[in-house]
Each structure stands twice: as C-alpha cells, then as structure tokens.
Amino acid sequence: MKKLAAAMSALMLSVTALAEASGGFLDGVAKVNGAVNNVVWGVPALILLAFVGILMTCLTKVFQLSHIGHWMKKTIGAVFSDKHVTGHTADKSISQFQSLCTALAATVGTGNIVGVSGAIMVGGPGAVFWMWVIAFFGMMTNFSENVLGIYYRRRNSKGEWAGGAMYYLRDGLGSYKGFKQVGAVLAWLFSLFCLIASFGIGNMTQVNSISGNMQTVFHVPTWVTGVVVMLMVGLVVVGGLKRIASVTEKIVPFMVILYILGTIIIFFSNIGKIGAVFGAIFSGAFAAKAAGGGIVGYGIKLAIEQGMKRGVFSNEAGLGSSVMVHSSSNVKEPVRQGMWGIFEVFADTIVVCTLTAFTVLSSGLVDLTTGATLAEYNGIALTKANLVSTAFSIRFGFIGSAFVAISVMLFAFSTVLGWSHYGTTAAEYLLGEKRTIPYRVIFVLLVFGGAVMGDNLAWDLADTFNGLMMIPNLIGVIALSGVVMKITKNYVARQLKGEKIAPMLSAFPDIQREQAARTDTTD
After folding, report:
1. Which end of the chain is least crowded, N or C, by CB within 10 Å?
2. What is the pLDDT of residues 373-410, one digit of tens each?
3. Which CATH number fits domain 23-516: 2.20.25, 3.40.50, 3.90.350, 1.20.1740?
4. Regarding beta strands 376-377 and 380-381, do their DSSP bridges make them parallel or antiparallel, or are they unpaired?
C-alpha cells in the first residue's frame, strides 16, 4: 500500500513538474488517458449511470417529484426556520447546512461554467437537454448515496463520523453472503480512485480554470496564480473538516447568489430569445448531425455523451463523492440527508447550469440554427475557458469578463476545499488516520501543477478519474437499492403518514440506539 501511494504521488508530481518542459511526456500521458477514458466513459458506463438513476427513481416512487414540497421544506426551507439545520455543533460533526455548503463547494464549480461551455462547444445546444435528463435521475442517485452514507457511517478514533461509498461497499455489500471480499475490494478500489480523482477533478482542473481566466482577463501569469492559490488552499486545508466547513458556509451562498444574479440580468435582457434558445436545446438533443455538419447519428451521440459527462462533472451524482461530507452531518435521519442530495443536484444543474447555458446560447456566440460555436470573437479565439466570460462581456463589457473570472476563482477555490476533504477521507480509509497529513501536503503542492498544466489534458484526466470512481460506487448503489427503498418507505410512513413504527437510522445496533435516543428536533 505504501509503495502504491508513493508511486501515485511521484507520478502526479512528475506530470506537474514537466508540464511545460516535457511535451513528449505529456503527449504519452494523454494517449494512455485517452484509451482508459474511452472505456470508463463508453456506452456501457453511461447506460449504467442512467440505469441507476432510473432504478432509484422507480424504487422510491419518483420521490424527487412526488414529495417535492416536502424535500424543499426540509432543505432550503429549513435553513430559515430550523436552527438545528444551521447551528454549529460542539462535537466532531458539522451542521446540515455546513455539509450542504461543503458538498456544493465541491459541485458548484468550474463544471457550471467551463463544463457547460465545453458541452455546448462539442455537443451543441442539445447537450444541455441531456444534462437535464441525467440531473433529474441523478437527484435520486445522489439521494441514495447520502441515505446509504448515513446508514453505514461509523465514528473514527477522534469521534468524527466516517462515511462514504467505501463504507457502504465494505459493510453493506460486504454483508451479503459470499460478497465479503467483493465488497472489500470494491471499497478499496473506490478509495484509490477517489484519492486520484481528488488531484484531478478536485484540484488541478479547478485551479487550471482559475489560472486560465486570470491570465485571459487580468493578464496574470499562470505561475503567479498557482503560488497564490496554493498558499490560500494550504491555510484552510490544514485545519481539517471543521475549518473547511466554516469557510465554505460563508463563500458558497455568496458566490452562488452573486453568479445567479448576473445570469438573471442577462436572462431578462435577452428574454426575447428564450424561444429560440430552448428550441435549439430540444432540437439539438435529437439532431442527426453534429454541430456544423458531420456523420448522420453522430450529433445525437455527441450531445448525449457531452451532456452526461459534463452533467456528472458538475453535480457529481453517481460518483459517491459528496456523500463523504454529508455523512459528517449532525442529522440522524438518513432520508433527511438524502433530501439534501436532491436539492444539491437541483441547485447545481437545473438552476446554475441552465442559467449558464442560456447566457451562452443567447449571446450570439452560438449559431442556434446549426449549433456551431463561433471560432473567435473580436479577434480572440473562443474556448470553453473563455466562452462564458465573452458572453458576459457582450452585455457588460470588461466588467462582465472580470465578473466571470472572479466567479470562476470563487467556484473553483471552494471546489478544491471540498475535494480536499474527499481525498482525506479516502486516504484515511486506505492508509490510516495518521497518513492524512502527507496527503494534504501533496494535495496543496499539486495546486501549482494545475495552474500551469495544459487545459485539455487537465480536463481529460478529470473525466477519466470521474469514470473510474463512478463504477464501483454505482455497483454498490444497485446492490443496496433494496435497503434504500426500505429506509425511504420507513421514513415516509413515519414522517408523512404518522405511523408508529421503529425508525431505520443505522445498520449498526449501537449507533441505531444512540441516534434513536437523541432528543433534539433534528430529524
């Protein structure tokens, strides 16, 4: 295990150190990554992703729609009416609102800006439709992950809650007759992939977007951005989950509201184009040809592929990532935290990504008839990194570009903080609690590597790590789908129908008794 961790760390450090000096080496990395990416993000994997969301939607009787009023009331509504949701805890857990903000910090990131731009540029406007589809079913995938995370979580030696896909794979799937070793292996693989993914999706990709925008808008060299962000991340990450949660609960609401206000202004400014924009989205979703022409049938493939990949990159439903911070919540009801998972996907993709997509598609930078993006605007080549900022500049001038650059910086910075906890959780599971400090040091150092790494390679690596992490997690959710269904049915019977039955709060008798005995009003 030590040799594996050392080899992985050496590989990642080599990539960043040679980012500018060794183009041949990075070309080799890109080729290997491309081959792996084609497998983990192939048709079977996308079918698996969609299948799990559809399965959990059916088993929970379309909970995201049938109980929309209830989960809205118990999530965003409770922020303004229930002190237990936002109140800080004296123990090692964090509040429900802090867990949401930390999870949103990891999901509401560059995927909502750069990811949406990339999906539109490659898959056309139709990719947005498939982002909606995967988000609708992804709500219940994320719900299921959180339910299982709370149900199978344990306390570590420090008294902190430890939960995540690795735990419900080991203790849930592994509890089935003949599956003990299978559950243990899948838990180990998930933790390994999560550890690697934290360096990609949760670190280098995010910082790469920050440095790219800062260079384009403010002409700040990428290495300067890398040094500054590395120091900022280091100051927060060394403080552990409590400090991360404390920072994210302040940053996330501010950055999300600020960005939404900017996109809403553009929405109403271009409201006359709403019919054309949504028409392009729906028609593009089933276009026979790719944007600008191409092989018949290829357009649908690109739209679906890009919509699903970028959708998952944005909301992370199916990766099993956010459950690691949700499991640290002070909540006692698994379904209550599951509902926060529904809201998380809703806010991330249905709200923020849709507003970003409208901003781009109504800007004139995309031909709504062909679906093709302009090659350049005012002499500047358009890329997924600057497409949204260019769209903002059309409406607001330089202030618009600066606004997006600052938004990307806040979004990406908060994502790095959230993912540092995910990677720490994986490191704790794989290497033990004492080995998390070296992980955090490596994580902070790789921030600089992300700032100077090539744009395409950073995103391609993140895609691959996402897919590798997703597969064992989804296998676990499918295997434990019956458990999720029983817990949900139990909650609905007690909380919505008033039936007097014993609650299902934990898979472990001692924790079940502990949680059932709690007298606070947090349900």
Report:
1. N
2. 888 888 888 887 788 889 999 999 989 888 888 887 88
3. 1.20.1740
4. antiparallel
